[in-house]
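Exam review. A common question shows you a sequence with its structure tokens and asks you to describe the fold in words. Practice with the pair below. Do the first one on your own.
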Amino acid sequence: MQRIATPIVVVSDGGPGLRKALKKVWRTAKLQRCIVHAVWQVHRYTTRRPKTLAGIMLKDLASDLYNVKTQEDAKIWIQRLFNWRVTFKEFLSEMTRDSNDNLRATHERLLKAYNSLVVLINTETMFRYLDETLVLDKECPRTNNPIEGGVNAQLRRLLRYHRGMSVEKRIKAVFWWCYLHSPRPLSAKEILKVMPTDASISKIYSSMNERAQLQGIIPTWGDAISWGDLHNYDKLSFNDWD
């Protein structure tokens, strides 16, 4: 992230790692929660076909987020959300004893769905795209779907078409695709300086695997190699790149 200029707004699917990274690297960047992911999270709690009136209304209310286009729309939507909580206050207060004889909210999933929306409102990440103080060249995005469909989907397709490649070569294929599809890619000569080889990837993985085994944790492909390990320009500190 340090190699990229600080953006004005970052659209996130809600992963906690990005929020921490923003505070550390892009401190002035504003955060917008992807509206699509926010709606999906509510639908996971309510299910696609909720059976209670409260669930049906909350699911529909979340879906109405797609129709919020102005600050006035946002105010009306927020008021509708709080009205939902008041309307079903008694219903949501019902308690049930679980298998361990502990009291728990009977409609715990609905409360989690509601709270997930309230958190976005309180952190001002729900309607950041409506912030008139942002100076942007174009309309502020409210979803990261273009990344999912334009980049991630193509990477998944690339790996699916080349399932026969070794893990090392699959990792290198992703690197090449990302470099060659960036707005201002490095030259082939510069890319080769930082591009990992099959041997270097295996060595990094083996080293981290041995270290993790000492800690009682065995990593798997995909979570054992960090971005920094595969992008190192200092030949004195790491000289295994070809």
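Now try the second one, then compare your answer with the model answer below.
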Amino acid sequence: MTTCKVCEDPLTLQVEDEETEQLQSVPDDLRLPCGCHFHWQCLLDRSTEVAISLKCPSCGTQLAANAAGPSVTNSFPHSSPNVSIPTTYTSEGGVDENLDILPTITEEAYLAANPEARLARAYHVMCAEGDVEGIIELLRDTEQGDGEEPTMAAPQLIRYQDPLADMKSGLHLAVERGQEEVVWLLLWMASTLPTHAFPEASVQAAQAVGIQRLDTSPSEDIRALKDGRGRSAEDVAAEMDGVWAALLQAGVLHPGA
């Protein structure tokens, strides 16, 4: 019987059946290009090692396709369509052929080295999905120091740029996804845009939940942040075929406006 190279247990996972509430055994078999098998979580627990070496943690075989490996100045390989670790993953949902595990490995390694970024990345998901209530709750928890995980101060969290997502900020993501409520919320909290430039509804909504404007200098204005391609949120909006035409015309997204 093939077993996991880390824990040496069978390549299955015990899950609870929703109908019977009884535990049942389901496949959990991640096969690397070298032929070694791991539980999904067992390999992720070795993410830092794999991300740096790009080698199998069991047999030492080079795993990455079309990769020269990490550089001296950058411990983790850059995300690139030319670099991948193709695997086969058999799970409860079936067999996933040619599953590139490298993005997941890189993310886990980054979060292991930067645990405070977990909340920041959750915040980015909320920005992209338009979850205004979630953003407000997360920022309040951050200010109150709730939770056991390492975190960062609210101003730092609001301006966080994700090195695993082309250095985009929450404002970049909100603009990309057309989340206007989130855009106004972020501008309210982290820009120098005058209060009179905000829609009355946005001002009332912010005041109703007690969201105060941060003391923001021009250099800290969230609109000045640029992604890995050198684009501000205003630049991203300008690429979107008129979706943000009104805000662009009013100069709302322009740094320093």
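Model answer, second protein: The radius of gyration is 22 Å. The chain is about 35% helix and 10% strand. Full marks require stating both points clearly.
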